[in-house]
């Protein structure tokens, strides 16, 4: 029997203004494209100039590509001003920007530790803090933070990354408590995702062997969960981080 998938509502996010960080490639690019496809005014932000090419390729006036180092407060504030000018106040933030570099604990340098914490955790704090005023003034908003299953599963090659993502889970709860009741803040903790970066790092196939579903997630598998949490269909999930990893962390 063949199951027919329900068609996507291309107007689900019409009138919404959405920011997606880390949107040049991989999961962030997919999330941004899905918001755009469903009617949102979408701001794609990344440190790489490739984000402008991705935005331009969508061929729409409803998408904006911006480059910025989101570990720097002044650059985050500049992004906010550009989005306000071009799109109006943000109502949805997706904190996706991140970096994963497997290194044994004994080999992690102080600079590498600081870099991973800044990119994966500090950006979540700075971006959410910068845009929260807009969300609260509108008395409506959604924030979705991308954490990782590695926040819950110890691995000898990613102490700095796991610590940062565990911090994202914690920040999600504290922002949710402070921004309620009008702004809902949630997270998503993906397992292995089949992106070009993951494939190039050499660990993906081993992770697939350990997964009960026998595959890695496609970026769209994660994007669908992000869009639900950001949608008006989500009315009562707040401060939660949804684990989306095919059952790899089942107890």
Task: Describe the overall structure.
With 251 residues, this protein is α/β, with parallel strands linked by helices. The protein is built from 8 helices and 7 strands, in the order βαβαβαβαβαβαααβ. Strands 3-2-1-4-5-6-7 form a 7-stranded parallel beta sheet, sandwiched between helices. Strand 1, helix 1 (26-37) and strand 2 (41-46) form a beta-alpha-beta unit. It is globular, with a radius of gyration of 17 Å. The two termini are 32 Å apart.
Number of helices: 8
Major beta-sheet overview? 7 strands, parallel
From the helix content, strand content and strand pairing, which structural class follows?
A: alpha/beta
- Report mean pLDDT, rounded to a whole number: 91
The string of secondary-structure elements, in order, is EHEHEHEHEHEHHHE
Query: Which consecutive residue ranges, at least 5 long each, have pLDDT under 50?
Result: 1-6
Strand content: 15-25%
Rg over C-alpha atoms, rounded to the nearest angstrom: 17 Å
- What is the overall shape? globular
Nutshell version of this structure?
With 251 residues, this protein is an alpha/beta fold.
């Amino acid at each position: 029997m063949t199951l027919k998938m329900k068609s996507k509502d291309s107007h689900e996010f019409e009138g919404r203004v959405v920011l997606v960080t880390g949107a040049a490639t991989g999961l962030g690019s997919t999330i941004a494209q899905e918001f755009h496809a469903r009617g949102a005014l979408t701001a794609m932000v990344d440190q790489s100039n490739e984000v402008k090419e991705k935005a331009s390729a969508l061929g729409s006036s409803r998408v904006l590509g911006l480059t910025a180092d989101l570990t720097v407060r002044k650059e985050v504030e500049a992004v906010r001003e550009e989005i306000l000018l071009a799109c109006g106040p943000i109502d949805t933030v997706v904190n996706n920007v991140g970096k994963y570099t497997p290194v044994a604990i004994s080999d992690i340098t102080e600079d590498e530790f600081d870099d991973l914490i800044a990119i994966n955790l500090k950006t979540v704090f700075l971006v959410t803090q910068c845009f929260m005023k807009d969300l609260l003034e509108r008395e409506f908003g959604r924030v979705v933070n991308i954490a990782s299953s590695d926040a819950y599963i110890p691995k000898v090659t990613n102490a700095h990354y796991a610590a940062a993502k565990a911090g994202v889970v914690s920040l999600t709860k504290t922002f949710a408590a402070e921004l309620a009741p009008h702004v809902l803040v949630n997270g998503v903790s993906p397992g292995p995702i089949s992106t070009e970066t993951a494939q190039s790092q050499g660990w993906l196939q081993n992770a697939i062997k350990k997964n009960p579903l026998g595959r890695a997630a496609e970026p769209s598998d994660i994007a669908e969960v992000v869009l639900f949490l950001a949608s008006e269909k989500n009315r009562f999930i707040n401060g939660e981080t949804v684990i989306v990893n095919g059952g790899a962390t089942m107890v």
